[in-house]
Structure formats: structure tokens, C-alpha cells
């Protein structure tokens, strides 16, 4: 069976894993978009300004955007040009014009990004990250509901097993296996996705 066939599996551990991967990738994709947009906008303003360290030339980027082996984004401080030393306070492009030490007009533009109502997805960056965290909570609630359903199915399976008498045992066994497969899928989803949610929540800096 190829990877493209996995969507045809609707029960069992494989289905649970597939659902987990899909939901987690969706959440990670939201974080990727947020981090990329944030870094690009800050760097754009930063590089149009002039720093104390080099007031005659445009300031260097503040952030470097990299991707891991799975294509997910991480941010790190950029290095000062020609060095392996991360940028510092003296590299911030605070001035809006060359050789104007003491001018902070460009720095104010960067600060204004925080309250820009169109900064990210028709809202501010604060609203954007809040929405992503809210989506994580929605997924967590969904997992909790899945757990309740799985436990209910397991109880039904147990009740059926105890009540088999004078009926087609093959049919009842098939039904119990169906319930068990559904339970296994939900249980696997809950276990793996819970770990993923914790990792995502740890990515959000505390206020």
C-alpha cells in the first residue's frame, strides 16, 4: 500500500496516526506562516533603517528564517555581516536616515507593527498568535471528545461480548472488532496528538 492509499483507512492504529499527522501538520503550518510573516516584516523595516554601529549603511537583517528537514520554520538572530556574531542592540536600524544618530523614527515603525491591524491575517500579530493558540485549544477539546467516544465504544463492545447468547457469533465478533478498531484509532490519536500539542504550546513564549 502506498502513502496515497492511507486516506482509505478509516480505523485502527494507522488511521489514528494519519489523523494525528494531518492535524499536527495543519497547526505547524499556521506557526510557520506566522513566524515567516513576522520575520519578513520586521526585517523589511529594519533593513530600511540605519544603525549606530554602521550609520552610513542600511542595517542588517535581525532574523534568519530556516527550515528543518520537514519544512517547518524556525527563527534565529541573524549574524552581523561578515561575522559569526549575532546582531546586537547596536545593529538595530533605529534611524530613518543615514548618519542621523539619535533619530529613532525607523525603530518606531518596527514597534508600530505590534498594533498594526493588518499585520497578519487582517489583524495584529498579537491577535494572530492568539488565534493560533485558540486553534490548538480547539484541537485539544476535539481530542478530549474523541476520548469520550472511544471509551463509550469500548463499553459497548464489552456489553456486546457479555450478552452474546443464541445469536450469530460470527456477526457479533465482526461488530466487536469494528468497535475495537475504532477505539484503537481514537486512542492512538489521543496519545500521539497530546504529545504534539504540548510541543506546540511550548513553542509559544509566555507573556
Describe this structure in words.
By secondary structure, the protein is mainly alpha-helical. Helix content is 57%, strand content 5%. It has 4 helices and 2 strands. It has helices at residues 12-46, 105-112, 125-163, 169-203, and strands at residues 63-67, 73-77. A two-stranded antiparallel ribbon has the order 1-2. Helix 1 packs antiparallel against helix 3 (125-163) and helix 3 packs antiparallel against helix 4 (169-203). The protein is elongated and about 85 Å long. The model has no long low-confidence stretch (mean pLDDT 75).
Brief rundown of the structure:
This protein has 207 residues and is mainly α. The protein has four helices and two strands. Helix 3 packs antiparallel against helix 4.
Task: List its traits.
mainly alpha, 5% strand, 207 residues, 4 helices, two-stranded antiparallel sheet
Rounded to the nearest angstrom, the radius of gyration is 26 Å
Provide the helix percentage: 55-70%
Strand content: under 5%
Could you report the average pLDDT, rounded to the nearest whole number? 75
Tell me about the largest β-sheet. 2 strands, antiparallel
Q: Report strand order across the widest sheet.
A: 1-2
Count of DSSP strands: 2
Runs with pLDDT <50, length 5+?
none
How many DSSP H or I helices? 4
The structural class is mainly alpha
The global form is: elongated
Helices and strands, in order, run as HEEHHH
Determine the N-to-C terminus distance: 46 Å
Amino acid at each position: 500500500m502506498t502513502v496515497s492509499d492511507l486516506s482509505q483507512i478509516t480505523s485502527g492504529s494507522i488511521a489514528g496516526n494519519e489523523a494525528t499527522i494531518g492535524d499536527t501538520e495543519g497547526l505547524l503550518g499556521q506557526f510557520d506562516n506566522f513566524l515567516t510573516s513576522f520575520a519578513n516584516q520586521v526585517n523589511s523595516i529594519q533593513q530600511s533603517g540605519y544603525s549606530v554601529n554602521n550609520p552610513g549603511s542600511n542595517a542588517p537583517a535581525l532574523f534568519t528564517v530556516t527550515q528543518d528537514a520537514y519544512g517547518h520554520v524556525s527563527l534565529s538572530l541573524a549574524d552581523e555581516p561578515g561575522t559569526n556574531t549575532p546582531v546586537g542592540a547596536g545593529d538595530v536600524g533605529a534611524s530613518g536616515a543615514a548618519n542621523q544618530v539619535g533619530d529613532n523614527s525607523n525603530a518606531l515603525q518596527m514597534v508600530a507593527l505590534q498594533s498594526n491591524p493588518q499585520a497578519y491575517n487582517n489583524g495584529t500579530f498579537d491577535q494572530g498568535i492568539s488565534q493560533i493558540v485558540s486553534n490548538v485549544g480547539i484541537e485539544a477539546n476535539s481530542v478530549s471528545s474523541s476520548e469520550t467516544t472511544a471509551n463509550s465504544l469500548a463499553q459497548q463492545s464489552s456489553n456486546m461480548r457479555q450478552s452474546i447468547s443464541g445469536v450469530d457469533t460470527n456477526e457479533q465478533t465482526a461488530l466487536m472488532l469494528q468497535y475495537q478498531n475504532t477505539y484503537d484509532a481514537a486512542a492512538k490519536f489521543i496519545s500521539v496528538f497530546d504529545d504534539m500539542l504540548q510541543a506546540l504550546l511550548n513553542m509559544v513564549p509566555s507573556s
